[in-house]
């Protein structure tokens, strides 16, 4: 009886040790995303900077933007390196990263050509075409980013990736709704657009990791 209790306590202690690094890495992940997002969406946002009339405060925004992006990107690269060391399917991880980058680049080029074609062959204004391409690009990149993160988590947890997974379908629906709300805010209130996109991207990137990794 005593041996059984000691064994249970030992197992609990081991579980706590296993959970601790998860929480630490998750905190670093959230911090990295927040710093990178603050730099790219807020401190280097042209609409916000223009409000300071190119004064010293505007220059301070640029400096803060570069610093926060650098620190945030450094944290995210460190975490990806830690993930790569621990994942069993390294070949699949490299292929997933390559395909993700290629899809982002190809979709950007294709949408740019489509936008150019629409502008030249129709009477649509340049601003309308620009907004249309931005909306489509935001949806595509947001979904690609979510799927890439989700797929990497399945590799880490050594679970199969299945498009028919009900949980994945629900999360994809949530991603679409969040992106739709942030896009609507951006088009209606341009000055709040960057903040809305920042929050949406943050919720998506943090939510999928928390649900699949931390809660598991």
Measured as a percent range, the helix fraction is over 70%
- The domain tally reads 2
What is the mean pLDDT?
A: 84
Task: Give the tally of β-strands.
Answer: 0
Radius of gyration: 21 Å
Silhouette: globular
- Tell me the fraction of residues in β-strands, as a range: under 5%
Cα separation of the termini: 30 Å
Largest sheet: none
User: What is the tally of helical segments?
Assistant: 7
The assigned structural class equals: mainly alpha
Order of helices and strands: HHHHHHH
- Low-pLDDT ranges: 12-18
Transmembrane segments: 26-44, 60-80, 100-119, 131-151, 171-189, 195-214
Keywords: Membrane, Transmembrane, Transmembrane helix
Which keywords apply here?
216 residues, mainly alpha, 7 helices, 88% helix
Topology:
Blueprint: H1 2-43, H2 46-50, H3 56-86, H4 90-121, H5 126-157, H6 166-188, H7 190-214
Helix pairs in contact: 1-3, 1-7, 4-5, 5-6, 5-7, 6-7
Summarize the structure.
This protein is mostly helical and 216 residues long. The chain is built from seven helices and no strands.
Structural commentary:
The protein is mostly helical. It has two domains: 86 residues; 129 residues, no CATH class. The protein is 88% helix and 0% strand. The longest helix has 42 residues. The protein is globular. Keywords: Membrane, Transmembrane, Transmembrane helix.
């Amino acid at each position: 009886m005593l041996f059984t209790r000691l064994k249970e306590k030992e197992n609990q202690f081991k579980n706590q040790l296993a959970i601790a690094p998860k929480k630490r890495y998750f905190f670093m992940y959230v911090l990295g995303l927040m710093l990178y997002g603050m730099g790219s969406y807020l401190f280097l946002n042209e609409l916000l900077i223009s409000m300071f009339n190119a004064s010293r405060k505007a220059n301070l925004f640029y400096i803060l933007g570069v610093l926060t992006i650098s620190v945030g990107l450094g944290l995210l690269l460190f975490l990806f390196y830690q993930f790569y060391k621990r994942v069993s399917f390294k070949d699949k991880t490299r292929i997933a990263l390559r395909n993700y980058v290629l899809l982002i680049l190809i979709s950007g080029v294709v949408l740019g050509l489509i936008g150019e074609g629409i502008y030249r062959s129709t009477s649509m204004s340049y601003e309308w075409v620009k907004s249309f391409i931005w909306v489509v690009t935001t949806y595509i990149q947001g979904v690609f980013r979510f799927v890439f993160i989700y797929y990497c988590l399945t590799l880490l947890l050594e679970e199969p990736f299945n498009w028919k997974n009900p949980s994945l379908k629900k999360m994809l629906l949530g991603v679409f709704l969040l992106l739709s709300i942030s896009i609507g805010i951006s088009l209606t209130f341009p000055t709040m657009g960057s903040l809305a996109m920042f929050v949406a991207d943050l919720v998506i990137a943090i939510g999928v990791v928390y649900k699949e990794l931390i809660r598991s």
